[in-house]
Amino acid sequence: MRFCTFRVPDGRVRAGWLQDDTLVVDMHVVSQGQLPPTMMEFLKDAEANLKMARALADSLQGSLSGNMSSQASSDGHGTGQNGVYLLPEIQLLPPLPRPSSIRDFYAFEAHVKTARKNRGLEMVPQWYEFPAFYFSNHQAVLGPEAQVDIPPGCRWFDYELEIACVIGREGQNIPSEEAHAYIFAYTIMNDWSARDVQREEMKVGLGPAKGKDFATSLGPWLVTPDELERFGASRDEDTDSPLNVGEEVTSRFGKRYNLSMTASVNGMVLSRGNYRDVYFAFEEMIAHASRGVTLYPGDVIGSGTVGTGCILELGPTVHRWLEPGDVVELHIDGLGTLRNTVKG
């Protein structure tokens, strides 16, 4: 399923799911109050709520599309009656407007190697020993189509092409082989970066901080893992043989879905990568993050930038730093497209 948070025409903020690719369902209304009105509340009992949501979505399948299509053809838009809206008449917001936390990892070897090489640095051996992360600002989350401000004093403004997962179960000291069960959904993440600010503060030996904490984009949906089973992943690090649908990955890499990832600026594709190439899979990130610490439903785990996934890595000779008016689109197979405009 694809879950979302959205604003309806009368200004109310609701939560629900995408149905038949063209309709958005208000889960609180269609369940007659049995499902909560927000995604954060939904995640507090994700297993039971997901079971109910799937049953409701199955019962609505087909009948809604016909009814709403006939309404659309007669009056030009859906009515929102019974909690169902046509996709064009609602405004998508961040699927989790205020996550309980955001941990952003550094899990793609190609990105780390190239970014360090561009600065004349070798890889540090410790990077291979554990998946490193920093905490980002969970109160500064943007959704699809939102405008993003360049922070004060920044001249080197950059995007980062990432995939993120959302935790759906509370847990501590989670073994990596059990971690997949704690993932509620995946989404696209853009870790906006003020590179010149980041460069100076990192010289202190702590951070990143102000170079990162002003904005993170998430969206457009939260996509449950079953939706990605059709994207085969490699069985292990030494073979590209595809998985059968539903087959488990048995290597230490966990579930490495074969998800093509691209980023474009003003329609020009700059970045191309694949989640399959991640060095530390989400299962390993979750295991590390939960060591001695409780993870909670609504925590977001970011993958870090895929190889070629930012201007810093590509180099400003490939493309200048972002400027007001630039439209940045991140696309990941199975997850959709996350589009934002740099505010003028």
How do the strands and helices of this protein lay out in sequence?
Blueprint: E1 2-7, E2 13-19, E3 23-26, H1 27-30, H2 39-43, H3 46-60, H4 63-75, E4 84-86, E5 91-93, E6 101-105, H5 109-118, E7 133-135, E8 141-142, E9 147-148, E10 157-158, E11 161-167, E12 171-172, E13 183-190, E14 193-194, H6 195-202, E15 216-223, E16 260-265, E17 268-274, H7 282-289, E18 294-295, E19 299-302, H8 311-314, E20 327-332, E21 336-342
Parallel strand pairs: 6-19, 8-15, 9-21
Antiparallel strand pairs: 1-2, 1-5, 1-15, 2-3, 3-4, 6-7, 10-14, 11-13, 11-19, 12-18, 13-15, 16-17, 16-20, 20-21
Structure overview:
19% of the residues lie in helices and 28% in strands. It is an alpha+beta fold and 344 residues long. The chain has two domains: 2-91, no CATH class; 101-342, Fumarylacetoacetate hydrolase, domain 2, CATH 3.90.850.10. Strands 1, 2, 3, 4, 5, 6, 7, 8, 11, 13, 15 and 19 form a twelve-stranded mixed beta sheet that branches. The two termini are 35 Å apart.
What is the strand tally? Answer: 21
The separation of the N and C termini measures 35 Å
CATH topological fold name of the largest domain: Fumarylacetoacetate hydrolase, domain 2
User: What class would the helix/strand composition place it in?
Assistant: alpha+beta
CATH superfamily membership of the largest domain, which one?
A: Fumarylacetoacetase-like, C-terminal domain
Radius of gyration, whole Å: 20 Å
Instruction: Specify the CATH class of the largest domain.
Output: Alpha Beta
Q: Globular, elongated, flat, extended or rod-shaped: what is the shape?
A: globular
| CATH architecture tag of the largest domain | Alpha-Beta Complex
Outline the biggest β-sheet: 12 strands, mixed
